[in-house]
Design a protein that fits this description.
Blueprint: H1 19-33, H2 42-50, E1 54-58, H3 66-80, E2 90-94, H4 103-119, E3 140-142, E4 145-152, E5 168-173, H5 174-181, H6 184-201, H7 221-224, H8 240-247
Helix pairs in contact: 3-4
InterPro entries: Uncharacterised_YqcI/YcgG
Protein name: YqcI/YcgG family protein
Length: 248
């Protein structure tokens, strides 16, 4: 089976999927198309409607093979992403465990996965992106591509915008975000609509770390995994830069 699928592939009898994979896709589709509880991220709902998203599947994030499999999925997506459409993102669902863990357990799993993936990267870190996550222009990179990373978990309750029955990641290439922001009037018009949807969607107020990329006081990694409250990690759990320097 190919590593990347379109949503239309889930019902393809020539490409049979396990039940949990079909269930994850259908639940995601329901979230993107709900006309009453509108998902806050308008670009994401548009990407789904246009068929620009690609989907991948991985074992439980606590499975030892999850990191290598995720790295392979991201690499394949990155090589072809520009052919998928202007709003493209990669969505990866992870097989669910029997019991739901605490939010912080999923946070640890999230950063462990990104660390594992990064250690498998054989492409030099982009020269224009700081390796230090405490810099405003830092963002996650793999195989030379820059990504904004979103994480949803089954443990989130107050932030329904970060809640999903399966642990999931969505990686959006920076070139997609740059195209979206290339039209400032359009972006400025949509921003308050996203905020209004977010206020209606979540019972918690917007997280204080939701800030524009590169802006004063913004640290991008703090938006990747939003906790169910307003707290954030004291420091970034991403360790690639530290590991590389230690090895020199």
């Amino acid at each position: 089976m190919p590593l990347l699928l379109q949503y239309t592939d889930i019902e393809n009898e020539e490409l049979p999927l396990e039940a949990w994979k079909k269930d994850a896709c259908r639940r995601f589709a329901a979230k993107m198309t709900d006309r009453e509880a509108r998902f806050p991220c308008i670009p994401a709902t548009r990407a789904f409607a246009l068929g620009h998203l690609r989907f991948g599947f991985a074992p439980s994030p606590w499975d030892g093979s999850a990191g290598p499999e995720l790295a392979e999925i991201i690499a394949e997506y990155g090589r072809a992403s520009r052919a998928f459409g202007d709003y493209s993102s990669l969505v990866v669902f992870f097989e669910a465990e029997e019991n739901v863990r605490e939010v912080l357990a999923y946070e640890n799993a999230f950063w462990n996965l990104l660390n594992q993936v990064s250690r498998l990267d054989r492409t030099p870190w982009p020269e224009d992106i700081p390796e230090d996550p405490e810099q405003a222009l830092w963002e996650f990179c793999y195989d030379g591509e820059r990504y904004f990373v979103y994480c949803g978990t089954p443990a989130h309750t107050s932030r329904q915008s970060r809640s999903f029955p399966y642990f999931m990641l969505a990686l959006t290439p920076r070139w997609v975000l740059d195209q979206w922001n290339a039209y400032p009037e359009k972006a400025a018009e949509i921003a308050p609509r996203i905020r209004a949807r977010l206020a209606a969607y979540d019972t918690a107020p917007a997280h204080p770390e939701l800030k524009p990329y590169g802006s004063q006081g913004n640290l991008e990694y703090k938006q990747y995994f939003l906790r169910d409250d307003d707290t954030s990690p004291a420091g970034c759990p991403f360790h690639r830069a530290i590991t590389e320097r230690a090895g020199k």
